[in-house]
Amino acid sequence: MCPVCGASFTLSTLSGPVLRCATGHAFDVARQGYVNLMPGGARPGTADTTEMVADRAAFLGAGHYAPLAQALAELASGGGGAGRPADVVLDAGAGTGYYLAAVLGALRLDDGAGAGAVGLAMDVSVPALRRAARAAPGIGAIGWDTWQPFPLRSGTVSLILNVFAPRNGPEFHRVLRPGGTLIVATPADGHLAELVGPAGLLTVDEHKDSRLAATLGPYFTVTARRDLTVPLRLTPAEAVTLIGMGPSARHTDPTATRNRLATLPEPIPVTAAFTITRYQAR
């Protein structure tokens, strides 16, 4: 819905694709297939940069985090609420759309139950949206700040994915249909621990679990929890790409990181550790 007035959109294609509401607010659909709904085209400073998105696309495209994508897809099966399969999947903080594509693919292969499943990738990063819009058939992509009230009608989403992204508990609950599912993936203790010293990475927040409970507890009930450890053996170049795609990229110097990692024996053993939690809306 229109983020300015709340009216419904229609798609006009007379002079290029445009989303237009009844009161005249209009948002161009970019040629890459996404639409930026943030008023004035605002881009919060926390948005992933072009370089971060390129690193993420390269690292994920190489399959290093494929076990995480598979685990998310398994938990998403049958998670549409009220006993129905998921048919509208929102990825809040979608990045390149890698995990959303995996979940939609699994739903469509699940005995055809998800044949009509569609996905909505939401992110503040325009470079990420350009990739997410083309990550898989059936994905639409919108530019939006996850901390703000979503430009989505209440009760219209059956499943929400949230992978290493901000969590807006009240809005997650509002846009989910009754009994809908939320799946959250966070880094677990020890995530990338082997790189913390050599590369100066940020460590996992020791209060992560309590903050997660405080944010989501009033609105959701935990229905499943899974810890996943993925052993990686990386070249120095792959390790640099891994660091470059995450929050540590904002706090490290790429040249210095590359020089430090070049001194380590190859391949570099790295442990990726995740916690995946499935919630049901109260």
From the structure above, extract its key features.
282 residues; alpha/beta; 2 domains; eight-stranded mixed beta sheet; three-stranded antiparallel beta sheet; 9 helices; 29% helix; 28% strand; globular
CATH architecture level-2 label of the largest domain: 3-Layer(aba) Sandwich
Text of the CATH class of the largest domain: Alpha Beta
Work out the number of β strands: 11
User: How confident overall, as mean pLDDT?
Assistant: 90
Strands of the largest sheet, in order across it? 4-7-6-5-8-9-11-10
Radius of gyration over C-alpha positions, nearest whole angstrom: 19 Å
Shape: globular
How many structural units, i.e. domains?
A: 2
Terminal CA distance reads: 24 Å
What is the CATH topology of the largest domain? Rossmann fold
Name the CATH homologous superfamily of the largest domain.
Vaccinia Virus protein VP39
Q: What are the low-pLDDT stretches, counting only 5+ consecutive residues below 50? A: none
Spell out the helices and strands N to C. Answer: EEEEHHEHEHEEHEHHEHHE
- Secondary-structure-derived class: alpha/beta
Q: What's the total helix number? A: 9
Task: Report on this structure.
- The protein is α/β, with parallel strands linked by helices and 282 residues long.
- It folds into 2 domains: 31 residues, no CATH class; 249 residues, 3-Layer(aba) Sandwich (Rossmann fold).
- Helix content is 29%, strand content 28%.
- The protein has 9 helices and 11 strands.
- An 8-stranded mixed sheet has the order 4-7-6-5-8-9-11-10, with helices on both faces. It has a 3-stranded antiparallel sheet with strand order 1-2-3, with no helix packed on it.
- The mean pLDDT is 90.
